[in-house]
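To start, an entry.
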Amino acid sequence: MKAGKGQDGSGGRGNKKNPPENLPEGSTGDSRDQVGKAFNVSGKSIDYATKVIEQGIPELAQAVEEGRMASRAAAILAGGMTINNGAGDFG
């Protein structure tokens, strides 16, 4: 056997072209985007909400849930974000 080659000659990582039939096919895309699609929001909105829940105070999350505050604004207040020409960026 050559170095770096699997027994089937595939490069050592198994047969990628034909995955085992008992395993589901992997989905494509980021998890945040898939969750966002399920809730009909963007993946970035999921990032904002996660930041509010993990780093913010309960009142911030409540304000977002009640529609009194945008999730982006709450994420900025929760910390860990910088404001850059109107686009938030986790720092």
Summary: Residues 31-78 form one domain. The CA atoms of residues 16 and 22 lie 14 Å apart.
